[in-house]
Structures are given as C-alpha cells and as structure tokens.
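debug: dumping io for the single-chain case to check the tokenizer round-trip. Nothing else runs in this session.
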Amino acid sequence: MKTCLIVDDSRVIRRVASKIFQDLGFETNEAENERNAMNAFVARPADIVLVDWDMPVMDGLEFAKRLRQLPGGDKAIVIFCTVENDVSHIQQALDASADEYIMKPFDGEIVRSKLLMLGMLG
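debug: decoded output
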C-alpha cells in the first residue's frame, strides 16, 4: 500500500487530508511539525509527503530541502499545501524540489487530480 506523510500544524487540516488520502487508498501518517515529520520519515519513508508551507519549526521550503537529503527522501513525492497562490511562491516551492502544489482549501477531487497527474493513481 502506498503511504502519505501529512505535515501541518493544523490538526483539522491533517485529519481532512488523512481522510482524503485514505479514501484514495493510501495509508497515512501525520506530523504537526517538521521535526516530528523528519523523525517519522526516517522511521518509515513515505511515498508522498504533503507539507504545509508555513510551519512553526522550519518553513516548508527548508523542510523539503532537508527531506531530500534523508535516505529515501529523493524518491518521495513532495506536495506543498498552502494559501499562497502567487506565481513566485509556486516557483519557490518547485525550486525547493517540490513535485506539486495544492492550494488551501482543497478537496478530494483536487488531490485526486494531482495524484493522477503525478502517476500515483491507476
């Protein structure tokens, strides 16, 4: 089964995202900050990491760069999740090695379409 690590300081966002990914056939794991997410990824690398841009310990950009240095981190698909919607933010995310970008609020259909585009759904 494919796995998704959901990294967001909002418990509500983590729960909503977990439900969406579970409905799409993923096993999920949650982390409320990047430090816990790094530990969770080391313990059990995920196929997809959904990460909030604005986090308390380090921002999503720094997290993505550090994640890519972990064993298996170069293979994970990183999807940024944020309220920022201008082109410069999207470019920053892609430059920080993100594979895709999702705007908040999001729903199951948005996530499904991104995963289809990334080849993660059959």
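debug: round-trip ok. The longest helix spans residues 11-23.
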